[in-house]
Design goal:
This protein has twelve helices and twelve strands. By secondary structure, it is an alpha/beta fold. Strand 8, helix 8 and strand 9 form a beta-alpha-beta unit.
């Protein structure tokens, strides 16, 4: 075994193949061509005198030798990561990289704002792709195909790291300016007098929270529709007599700029009832999520910048 030929890139390929069992996914994660992945596998097979990964219809299968070698490979890669983090000086001015950030509709404006006003002024060579999240992309995040996402509490957490940007503490009623709903006490009984248009992200709730509470109290709520787009919701609110709700302060901040629309904070007791209907095994709030795969200094720096600046903007909006 000619271990002197073993290099860092081959170790990374070994570890990645052991997780994904698919050359295409490895190539996407490491930013290399499939032919480069195959070349590194060839080097590894020659060094260890073993095929290591047997190709099957469903993907690679590790040989006994690969299973034996894998813990040592992970240990070596961990050592490299320690060297990178503790002994390499990171300079955002010279950092390079392209990052994909997905977020629910309510967060995309703020993310673009913090990228342009805070992050790019420090790291001008970074490039970004910010897209609206409208489907469950947990697997893409796990595989590192999406670098970051900003989501509510309902997401799959297998191999995904989550950090809460802000807790959900208030909920807001949304209706056309001058709507009669604002003239009465905001109780479930009074809210059920009007049609309800749900602001929903890819059907993450089986039914609107208000409808669930209404059913518990023997009342009915007339659902007039659902959308994951706040601009579309604006038209429905303005053109109909429907009401809606949101727990996102950025959504309320946006509607404060739309003169035909009025918002107000729901009573604390009703908010507690509504939030109590959400049971996801973690605190209800907004999360920055990402994969454990990318451990580069640039990724680590960007993660901290996103977390701090989005959190700052959230509490700034709460105060205003």
């Amino acid at each position: 075994m000619n271990v002197e030929r073993l290099d860092y890139h081959s170790l990374i390929v070994f570890e990645s193949v052991s997780r994904h069992l698919n050359a295409g996914l490895v190539a996407n994660e490491l930013g290399m061509s499939i032919s480069s992945v195959s070349r590194h596998l060839g080097i590894l097979r020659d060094i260890f005198k073993d095929v290591l990964f047997v190709r099957r219809a469903q993907g690679f299968v590790l040989t006994d030798k690969a299973i034996q070698v894998l813990p040592c490979v992970k240990h070596l890669l961990h050592g490299y990561q320690v060297l990178k983090h503790n002994h390499t000086e990171f300079n955002p001015l010279t950092a390079k990289g392209h990052f994909k950030i997905y977020a629910f509709n309510e967060f995309t404006y703020v993310i673009n704002k913090v990228l342009n006003e805070f992050i790019l002024s420090q790291a001008p060579n970074l490039t970004f792709e910010v897209r609206t999240l409208s489907t469950d992309c947990s697997r893409a995040i796990e595989h590192g195909e999406i670098d970051f996402a900003v989501v509510y509490e309902n997401f799959k957490d297998h191999k995904i790291i989550s950090e809460m940007v802000s807790p959900t503490e208030e909920m807001f009623l949304i209706a056309k300016a001058g709507h009669p709903v604002f003239d009465n006490e905001l109780t479930v009984d009074n809210l059920c007098k009007y049609g309800y248009f749900e602001l929903d992200n890819f059907n993450d709730l089986c039914s609107p929270l208000l409808e669930q509470i209404a059913k518990q109290q023997g009342k009915s709520l007339r659902i007039t529709g659902a959308t994951d787009n706040i601009a579309a919701l604006s038209r429905h609110i303005i053109d109909t007599n429907s009401i809606s709700m949101s727990c996102n302060v950025f959504t309320r901040e946006y509607y404060n700029l739309v003169s035909p629309i009025q918002t107000c904070t729901l009573p604390h007791e009703l908010t507690e009832q509504l939030l109590g209907m959400i049971n996801v095994g973690r605190k209800v709030g907004n999360y920055l999520i990402y994969s454990e795969i990318n451990q580069s200094p640039t990724h680590h720096w960007l993660k901290q910048q996103l977390f701090n600046t989005i959190k700052y903007e959230w509490y700034l909006a709460m105060e205003s």
